[in-house]
Design goal:
Order of helices and strands: HEEHEHEEEEEHEHEEE
Number of helices: 5
Structural class: alpha+beta
Shape: globular
Oligomer: single chain
Radius of gyration: 24 Å
Number of domains: 3
Mean pLDDT: 84
Strand content: 35-45%
Strand order of the largest sheet: 2-1-4-5
């Protein structure tokens, strides 16, 4: 019985040392990852529902100095759907916060690993405030580039949720952590930047 106790005690001690070392190692790894740009998913093709190719590995390999700049082109990703204008969609995290960005074929998708100053919280297009409207948060967020947004409030961009009615685009956002809202009428351009536009 004594022998069993001594083995048990030393085993517990060894296990405790291993667990403490593992825990400290994980904490350091998490600290090192803070602020890091991590590509989690990437697709190129007839998005969102058509034929597409998973290009996650290729896009992830293009991250340099915590930044990504890639042209959405057949030269980079092949042509999964001939005769169709394709899109590149990248899902990623910065500081563990999930984001996504989509660009059309021929456009350049740019992402920086630095925390975003401009964050789109909600966006609606339609007969605001109480009529028919569409949640366009993801579409608007996709157009943010280097903490700057410029997007036209048009049916071409967002569809027509309220036929025959002059619509509005309303965007709730934070800039440097400060909550703000901006609204423009149909066919106007909504602009947000650090210049206070």
């Amino acid at each position: 019985m004594t022998r069993f106790k001594s083995v048990s005690t030393s085993s517990l001690l060894a296990l405790a040392v291993v667990l403490i070392a593992a825990f400290c190692g994980d904490a350091r790894a998490e600290d090192a990852a803070a602020g890091k740009l991590v590509v989690t998913k990437a697709f190129y093709g007839d998005l969102p529902d058509g034929q597409k190719t998973d290009v996650t590995e290729k896009v992830a390999a293009m991250v340099k100095d915590n930044k990504l700049s890639v042209e959405a082109s057949n030269d980079n990703f092949g042509d999964p759907v001939e005769g169709t204008v394709k899109k590149l969609k990248v899902e990623y995290t910065v500081d563990g916060v999930a984001h996504s960005k989509t660009v059309n074929e021929g456009e350049t998708l740019s992402i920086s690993g630095k925390p975003a100053r401009l964050v789109i919280r909600k966006a609606f297009y339609g007969d605001l405030p109480d009529g028919a409207k569409t949640d366009v948060t993801e579409k608007v967020a996709d157009k943010v580039n280097d903490d700057h947004l410029s997007i036209e409030a048009t049916n071409d961009n967002f569809g027509d949720p309220a036929d025959g009615i002059v619509k509005k685009l309303k965007v709730d956002y934070t800039f440097d952590g400060k909550e703000q809202t901006k609204t423009v009428n149909e066919n106007e351009t909504l602009t947000i930047s650090d210049k206070g536009e």
